[in-house]
DNA sequence: CGCGACGTTGATTTGCCTCAACGATTGTGG
DNA sequence: CCACAATCGTTGAGGCAAATCAACGTCGCG
């Protein structure tokens, strides 16, 4: 039996922002006007290679992944996004260029999403969000640097152990094949660890 | 004979900002008050592991590198920064935590640098810079994602060729040993390509 | 039920590392 | 100004970590 995903509210996103910095009632109202809930069913696409990435997504429930497919047909996962994570192809979203990445749903997933137009409007109406989103991306930049360092480091075992330690809740939910595609190693090798 | 590096001015940074978004005279004045020139001699450290990263640096002339040293003593380079590039340990700089990274000079290097206090003051005085630095970090995030993808991809040859194509001016100036440490492969193997 | 996705294990191959030796170049101090 | 050390690039031989290819069992799902 599926969970009930038809209930949607802006609350999780407001809670999330509140943890970073308090919002005035007026600002909460702006957020609720500029974000819309949307349900993506398992295996459905949020973004397809070649399209412009139209939305910035905040995951309320479920799990998405962003990935690229190389010339040999191998899938490389750049990012997972479970509850309270953001996911979008930043370059494509802000520059409105065609994306080389894909985003799809590993599970039935509820997001709160905003468009480029709505987000820039929000920046104008409440400049505070410029700072919030700057901090968000700074944090994910730091995380990405850490990941790159581990990836460059010698053995494949270390990045794997680090992943299941850093994201224990994720490594339960996600098939090993997906984790392998995230780490850049083969599923067979993950199995041998 | 060494180039004359004693001349320092805020001009290159103002030029840089102007290319992104026009600045009012008042804003230019604020920038020149909040950034200071500084010369780092070859092999001198801008940031040492264990210290808090005190400065955000804009390279006017020369070249810096940011790197980590792993438990085996191997050096892994996260980023080079030549003319018109920014370099800092973002996490350490904004959170004022001890850094696990090092930054040093590959050549005599002139930077324009600002402190956390000066930068936050600048954000307050001219909120426009929130947006500017949000865009800067978005761009470097996109670049980092691209690099991670290439690194995960199978052969070591592709990342190398991509590097010398993307940064031809850098690959002339920088020893192959440094490029190897950036790509996560051995100098010997770079030589065989 | 039967198909497809997933995980496991084994045998073989290979890309890259490690270790080592050797010129060429740079730069540094006596 | 020369001698010596340090840095850099190159090449060779050998070894290992992880990929590849393949076969098989399990599970969930249409």
Structure, described:
- Two copies of one chain form a homodimer.
- Chain A is an alpha+beta fold and 193 residues long.
- Chain A has a domain at 11-115: Jelly Rolls, CATH 2.60.120.
- Chain A is 47% helix and 21% strand.
- Chain A has helices at 11-20, 25-34, 90-95, 116-125, 128-152, 157-166, 168-173, 176-183, 187-192, and strands at residues 36-40, 45-47, 55-61, 64-69, 75-81, 86-87, 102-105, 109-115.
- The longest helix of chain A is centred in the C-terminal third of the chain and has 25 residues, at 128-152.
- The A-B interface holds A 68, 70, 72, 74, 76, 78, 90-91, 94, 123, 127, 130-131, 133-135, 137-138, 140-142, 144-145, 147-149, 151-154, 183-184 and B 68, 70, 72, 74, 76, 78, 90-91, 94, 123, 127, 130-131, 133-135, 137-138, 140-142, 144-145, 147-149, 151-154, 183-184.
- The first copy, chain A, binds a DNA duplex (30 and 30 nucleotides) through helix 9.
Give the key terms.
homodimer; alpha+beta; Jelly Rolls; four-stranded antiparallel beta sheet; 9 helices; 8 strands; 21% strand; DNA-binding
In short:
The structure is a homodimer of 193-residue chains. The first copy, chain A, is 47% helix and 21% strand. Chain A has 193 residues and is an alpha+beta fold.
SSE topology sketch:
Two copies of one chain form a homodimer.
Chain A: H1 11-20, H2 25-34, E1 36-40, E2 45-47, E3 55-61, E4 64-69, E5 75-81, E6 86-87, H3 90-95, E7 102-105, E8 109-115, H4 116-125, H5 128-152, H6 157-166, H7 168-173, H8 176-183, H9 187-192
Antiparallel strand pairs in A: 1-8, 2-7, 3-6, 3-8, 4-5, 4-7
Chain A binds a DNA duplex (30 and 30 nucleotides) through residues 154-156, 175-177, 185-192.
């Amino acid at each position: 039996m599926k969970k009930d995903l038809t209930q949607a509210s802006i609350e999780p996103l407001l809670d999330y922002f509140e943890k970073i910095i308090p919002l005035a009632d007026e600002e909460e109202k702006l957020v609720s006007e500029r974000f819309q809930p949307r349900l993506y069913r398992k295996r459905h696409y949020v973004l397809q290679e070649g399209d412009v990435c139209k939305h910035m997504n905040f995951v309320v429930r479920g799990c998405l992944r962003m990935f690229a497919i190389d010339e040999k047909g191998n899938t490389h996962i750049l990012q997972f996004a479970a509850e309270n994570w953001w996911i979008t192809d930043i370059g494509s979203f802000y520059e409105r260029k065609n994306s080389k990445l894909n985003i799809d749903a590993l599970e039935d997933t509820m997001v709160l999403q905003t468009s480029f137009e709505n987000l820039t409007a929000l920046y104008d109406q409440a400049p505070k969000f410029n700072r919030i989103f700057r901090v968000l991306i700074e944090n994910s930049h730091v995380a990405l640097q850490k990941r790159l360092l581990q990836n460059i480091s010698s053995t494949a075992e270390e990045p794997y152990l680090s992943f299941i330690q850093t994201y224990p809740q994720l490594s339960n939910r996600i098939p090993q094949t997906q984790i392998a595609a995230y780490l850049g190693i083969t599923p067979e090798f993950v199995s041998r660890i």
